[in-house]
Amino acid sequence: MSNTLVQSDAWKNLQQHHTEIKDRHLRDLFAEDSTRGKKFTLEAAGLFLDYSKNRMTGETMKLLVALARSATLPDRIEAMFSGQKINTTEDRAVLHTALRAPRGAEVVFDGKNVVPDVHEVLDRMASFVNRISSGEWKGHTGKKIRNVVNIGIGGSDLGPVMAYEALRHYSNRELTMRFVSNVDATDFAESTQGLDPAETLFIVASKTFTTQETMTNANTARAWLLDGLEGDKSAVAKHFVALSTNAEAVRAFGIDTDNMFGFWDWVGGRYSMDSAIGLSTMLAIGPDGFREMLAGFHEMDTHYRTAPLDQNMPVIMGLLGLWYSNFFGAQTLAVLPYDQYLSRFPAYLQQLTMESNGKSVTLEGKRVSYDTGAVYWGEPGTNGQHSFYQLIHQGTHLIPCDFIAFANSLNPIGDHHDKLMANVFAQGEALAMGKTADQVRAEGTSESLVPHRVFEGNRPSNTLLIDKLTPRVLGSLVALYEHCVFTQGVIWNINPFDQWGVELGKQLAKAIIPELQSSDVKLSHDSSTNALIERYRTTKSS
Ligand SMILES: O=P(O)(O)OC[C@H]1O[C@H](O)[C@H](O)[C@@H](O)[C@@H]1O
Q1: pTM for this structure?
Q2: Which residue in the list 230, 364, 386, 503 is annotated as catalytic?
Q3: d(CA 78, CA 230)
Q4: Cα–Cα distance between 92 and 499 in angstroms, integer?
Q5: What is the mean pLDDT of residues 239-262?
Q6: Tens of pLDDT along 169-220?
Q7: Which NCBIfam families match (predicted)?
Q8: Atom 13, ligand 1: which residue's CA is nearest?
């Protein structure tokens, strides 16, 4: 068991401080300091953060920053940016920040500047995108490509889908974009419904090019294409491209490596939407839009690397998240974007945060004696308000919230946006301030209903208030959360860059497939699993 963190002075100071602050109400903290709403704010890389509605004071922030310092966060940040092999369990560097380094920058890994390679791939992607959108690249029968289907899962799906949805306003509406991820054939069947194979391009996105779901869907796509094009195998070259680090497997699948866009093992799957994995994003918003997005990422990277810890947005948000997880016992964090375009942002963040910080051993392999990554979840506002906000306002769990809102709508129609924004401001206020029994009584509520209508308040939130959703802002926003995750991972002394926890299920599924396909195979699982498999065998129709 590793107790190093909880035995540190910085941690003990926070524990002591927590006993002093835990019963203080945000109502009082705001009443005591009229400048609070301006004091605890920060601007970086096009984002404005108001973190004043958190259960903390200036002293809390000092102690949290001291904790970050005692975990040598600045050194760890530098180790990441400079390409040290900080992903120790996989013996890899972690250089997603190099993917958005400007042309001409230098990021040396293994004695080689990787930035020219990054830009070489970006340039090839741009030229491919231009050929598709101009119609120069034609399908096998000479038709223009009008449909793009991205086949990938996890990091090879969630980032591309999220970015496509987020940047739809800027996208080429002549291209129909679909995304297939699930091994459930329904996903493939519904996503290709109504598409003409002669006008369809499949992007097979897989870092490893071995993932069961993606390879199954890619094979089905190939069969679907050939079926629609009279079985002519030479059609594959015009209708399939691959995004991968594994050239050999791409070739073995039958995709010419000329039609492959590569990246490197120093890019984790959940950190790859700005690599070649972003080809669908680039097809949608064009090469200039994609470069703008990369510039936003880079601006946040620079902020994270250079700003003092107490003025550093990802550090502040990471520390506040940790404050609730480790000192208030909060188990989840809700991400609530007040923008329909960000509808998939919470799902994207789930992989980023939970696959990264869902660990229970330290870098040295010892069981941690404290909680690590929180459960991230959320839905776009205002939909969530009519669903689960009840629990956030009046339930027994403390759920810190991140509100994400934009001052300008990309679809300014009537007074929709003022109404949307009124709601996000109202929610933050209601959560923090609540409504006392006296206030409820003053409204003439009968005494028996008073307890039901009281809002305790003192429920914390951050508000990111941003000018307008653009490709650049999306880049900054994603980088903000990436670095927030890293900040927490460093303090918890875990490895945010491996994902061994997904392996066991994969391994067992592989062994079960033949057991489902032949009743002759003897079952040797636990009695529940055996019985379920037997029932499946007898119930399935073929
Ligand atoms: O891109 P791929 O190699 O196909 O991997 C897709 C996904 O599957 C794995 O199981 C990992 O848990 C994810 O981190 C990864 O993003």
Answers
A1: 0.98
A2: 386
A3: 55
A4: 13
A5: 95
A6: 999 999 999 999 999 999 999 999 999 999 999 999 999 999 999 999 999 9
A7: PRK00179.1
A8: 154
**ipTM value for the complex:** 0.98
Domains and CATH numbers, the chain: 9-71+307-496 (3.40.50.10490), 97-288 (3.40.50.10490), 506-541 (no CATH)
For the CA of 153, the nearest atom of ligand 1? 6
Chain-wide mean pLDDT for the chain? 97
- Cβ of 499 below 6 Å from ligand 1: yes
Beta bridge partners of 240: 202
DSSP annotation string for 320-343: HHHHHHHHS---EEEEEESSGGGT
- Residue bearing the CA closest to ligand 1, atom 11: 154
Pairwise CA distance, residues 33 & 182, whole Å: 51
Residues 6+ positions from 52 with CB-CB distance below 8 Å:
30, 36, 37, 38, 39, 40, 41
pLDDT value at 542 more than 70: no
Q: 61 with 17: CB under 8 angstroms?
A: no
* 409-418 contacts at long range (C-beta below 8 A, 24 or more positions apart): 410/169, 410/341, 410/468, 410/469, 411/169
Helix 279-306 and helix 313-327, axial crossing angle in degrees, nearest 10: 80
Phi, psi of 92 (to 5 degrees): -130, 155
